[in-house]
């Protein structure tokens, strides 16, 4: 489908199916306008890229759950971007002037109602995710597995929590979230009702108990409302944190357009700029067809470079041949030598860290993460280096969210924080 034949509804379908030429047309037609607006309203180019991507993802998420028909896509997207930016400024204690009447008039009443619903869901999703990031690592992992509808036995294996304890532990995690989200409003689910609702919504209630709970819901409208809100919260959070190939492919496609349309420097002559855009779009299309995320390979290479140094501590010393093999990129040979070191000295976290790094480069992700997680948990010197390479392991697989989760564990005072900050900026985190 050529851009000349695209209709307003085609943009919704293009987002749903992450169609490269439709995404390209969205950026060509609308990105520059939204960037100008954000820049005029106290924002930066980075803010503009973030808001534009958030708006497109909000439309995508909403259209996956509800029928969405738009009579005029351009004003719909423009108004959604503006409203998201308004909310963002309000969170920082700022305000911008109200929207002009003609901008609202450009949308039909149904489009306005749909836009408000898309915005409402998007804001709830962003709020839920922001509080999710503040949970403990064990809670985040438990909710990520539980909301993906896995068997309880599989969740127990992955989280190392006994099956009998899963419901209570998950309920504690939800209670931690809701205490912040609800600010202890009257009518919040009690601990017992939270646990019962979680089991009810997860399909874990026996038939008799489920029948009794259904009867309670019918006789108690307030409880019914709270359970519906809890269910909505679970679904919106799952959209952000659970593995989703379709979502990831769309995010990667949007990201591949960012540098072309939201570059801090706009001084490039138009013919050259158009050539760059064409190349970026072509590369993105090839990447999607091959199921390869365009940023995954490039960013991994950009941020993964490291060099093994001779450790200061004699107890951590490794053969010179290991350092030579590693620094020359002969990672398979380095692993064999590091295996021997670790057989003799299992507590050598220096050797374990570099073995994990080697395995990430060789796409041996699970054993790599086992090594790096042990280093993260046990080494004070290499803790944040291990966290960074755990992030890179997910980056290399194309799992942007898990990558960002690990980057967020690295504090500003860490020695490697400058590259952490740079990578977070590149990923839009």
SSE arrangement:
Elements: H1 8-16, H2 20-40, H3 45-65, H4 73-91, H5 101-105, H6 109-132, H7 137-146, H8 152-159, H9 163-182, H10 191-201, H11 207-219, H12 221-241, H13 245-261, H14 270-289, H15 294-304, H16 320-327, H17 331-344, H18 349-361, H19 365-378, H20 383-397, H21 400-407, H22 417-427
Explained architecture:
The protein is mainly alpha-helical. Helices cover 73% and strands 0% of the residues. It has 22 helices and no strands. Helix 6 (109-132) crosses helix 12. 34% of the residues are buried. Residues 266-273 and 281-297 have low confidence and may be disordered.
Secondary structure tally: strands: 0
SS content category: mainly alpha
Mean pLDDT: 81
| Shape field | globular
**Biggest β-sheet, characterized?**
none
Termini separation comes to 33 Å
Helical proportion, percent range: over 70%
Q: What portion of residues belong to β-strands?
A: under 5%
Number of helical regions = 22
Unreliable sequence segments: 266-273, 281-297
* Radius of gyration over all CA atoms, rounded: 24 Å
Series of H and E elements: HHHHHHHHHHHHHHHHHHHHHH
Task: Record keyword descriptors for this entry.
429 residues; mainly alpha
Quick summary:
It contains 22 helices and no strands. The protein has 429 residues and is mostly helical.
């Amino acid at each position: 489908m050529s851009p000349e034949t695209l209709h307003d509804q085609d943009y919704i379908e293009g987002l749903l199916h992450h169609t490269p030429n439709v995404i390209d047309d969205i950026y060509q037609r609308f990105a520059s306008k939204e960037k100008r607006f954000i820049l005029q309203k106290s924002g930066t180019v980075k803010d503009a890229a973030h808001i534009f991507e958030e708006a497109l993802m909000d439309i995508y998420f909403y259209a996956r759950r509800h029928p969405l028909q738009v009579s005029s896509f351009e004003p719909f997207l423009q108004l959604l971007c503006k409203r998201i930016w308004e909310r963002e400024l309000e969170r920082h204690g700022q305000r911008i002037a109200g929207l002009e009447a003609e901008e609202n008039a450009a949308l039909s009443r149904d489009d306005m109602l749909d836009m408000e619903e898309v915005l409402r869901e998007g804001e709830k999703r962003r709020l839920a995710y922001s509080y999710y990031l503040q949970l403990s690592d064990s809670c985040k992992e438990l909710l990520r597995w539980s909301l993906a509808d896995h068997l309880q036995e599989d969740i127990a294996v992955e989280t190392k929590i006994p099956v009998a304890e899963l419901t209570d532990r998950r309920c504690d995690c939800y209670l931690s979230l809701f205490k912040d989200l609800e600010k202890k409003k009257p009518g919040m689910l009690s601990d017992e009702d939270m646990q019962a609702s979680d089991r009810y919504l997860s399909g874990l209630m026996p038939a008799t108990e489920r029948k009794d709970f259904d009867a309670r819901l019918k006789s108690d409208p307030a409880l019914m409302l709270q359970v519906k809100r809890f269910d909505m919260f679970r679904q919106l959070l799952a959209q952000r944190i659970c593995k989703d190939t379709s979502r990831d492919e769309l995010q990667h496609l949007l990201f591949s357009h960012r540098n072309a349309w939201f570059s801090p420097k706009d001084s490039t002559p138009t013919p050259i700029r158009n050539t760059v855009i064409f190349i970026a779009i072509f590369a993105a299309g090839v990447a999607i067809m091959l199921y390869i995320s365009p940023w995954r390979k490039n960013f991994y290479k950009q941020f993964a470079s490291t060099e093994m140094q001779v450790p200061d501590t004699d107890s951590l010393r490794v053969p010179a041949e290991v350092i030579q093999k590693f620094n020359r990129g002969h990672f398979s040979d380095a692993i064999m030598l590091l295996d021997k070191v670790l057989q003799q000295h299992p507590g050598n976290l220096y050797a374990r860290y570099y073995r994990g790094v080697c395995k990430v480069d060789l796409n041996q992700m699970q054993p790599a993460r086992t090594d790096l997680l042990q280093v993260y948990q046990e080494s004070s010197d290499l803790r944040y280096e291990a966290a960074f390479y755990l992030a890179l392991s997910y980056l290399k697989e194309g799992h942007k969210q898990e990558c960002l989760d690990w980057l967020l564990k690295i504090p500003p005072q860490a020695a490697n924080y400058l590259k952490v900050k740079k990578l977070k900026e590149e990923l839009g985190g």
